[in-house]
Amino acid sequence: AERAQAWGEVARRLAHEIKNPLTPIQLSAERLERRLIGKLDAADEVVLAKSVKTIVDQVDAMKRLVNEFRDYARLPSAELKPLQLNELITDVMALYATEPLDTTPRTKVMAELDPACPAILGDEQQLRQVIHNLLQNAQDACELRGDAATPARVQVRTEWRPARQRVRLTVTDSGPGFAPHILQRAFEPYVTTKAKGTGLGLAVVKKIADEHAARIEMGNLLEDDGIQGAQVSLSFAVVQEAQGPQTPTS
Question: pLDDT tens digit string along 24-74?
Fold first, then answer.
């Protein structure tokens, strides 16, 4: 209880510091769009509008999270609705596209989405946060691996398992893998190997997984010559199973 209280105090302070710059970020982006619209050629205006929409959408998502996530233990209750996980991942993947002019390109993220996946019951904003956290952790891990003979890779994959009536989401990376002491405590708040990390990423993922009654697993990818990366998987019930045998009304 004392540890949870201490974690909550740190989370509240972080939320306060994060919330302050969000409104200026959004207003500045919208002001730039108003000033530049009509002064650019058609192609640049499309890029401007898309970029501003991305900024505003992500600021809105952060505001929602910060407003209700002042304490790890008070993560907002999930609002479960039918959604297509593949569509959500495709939407998030747009933020991880590499641009030719990127001065510090990050590890490329590849997607392998099973088209047979049915809808699951989920909270779109919370699952978006899960995907972001897992992909960012995977990219960070790839940057820690140092020189390697094979290219760094991050993959997000979905799989429909009809025998179990579950949709599985898996993120893998080619980083150094989880250290044994991290594997034992990875879902606890503020457990991290990152110099600048808060350690909330996987703790939030676990909390959201619990809200969705999702099964979560993590581990290392092992080859004959040792650890070849890490993997985190979540398994979701599909809409029919989650809703039970009730007959939908017209």
Answer: 998 999 999 998 988 888 899 999 999 999 999 888 878 766 765 654 556
- Which residues, at least 6 apart from 182, have a Cβ–Cβ distance to it below 8 Å? 191, 193
Strand-strand pairing, 215-223 and 154-161: unpaired
Q: Strand 120-122 to strand 166-173: parallel, antiparallel, or no bridges (unpaired)?
A: unpaired
Q: Which is more confident, 15 or 209?
A: 209
Closest residue by Cα to residue 110 from 72, 81, 151, 143 = 151
Q: How far apart are CA 248 and CA 112, in angstroms?
A: 32
Rg (CA), the chain: 20
Residue whose token pair is 């501003």: 52
Cβ-based neighbour number of residue 18 at 10 Å: 14
Beta strands in the chain (DSSP E): 81-83, 109-112, 120-122, 154-161, 166-173, 215-223, 226-237
Q: How far apart are CA 37 and CA 131, in angstroms?
A: 33
Residues paired with residue 156 on neighbouring β-strands, in sequence order: 111, 171
Query: How much is the pTM?
Result: 0.65
For the stretch 126-169, pLDDT in tens is: 999 899 989 988 988 888 776 666 778 899 999 999 999 999 99
Structure tokens belonging to residue 8: 């909550």
Sequence letter at residue 194: K
Question: Per-residue pLDDT for 233 more than 90?
Answer: yes
Cα dihedral across residues 111, 82, 57, 44: positive or negative: positive
CB atoms inside a 10 Å sphere around CB 165: 13
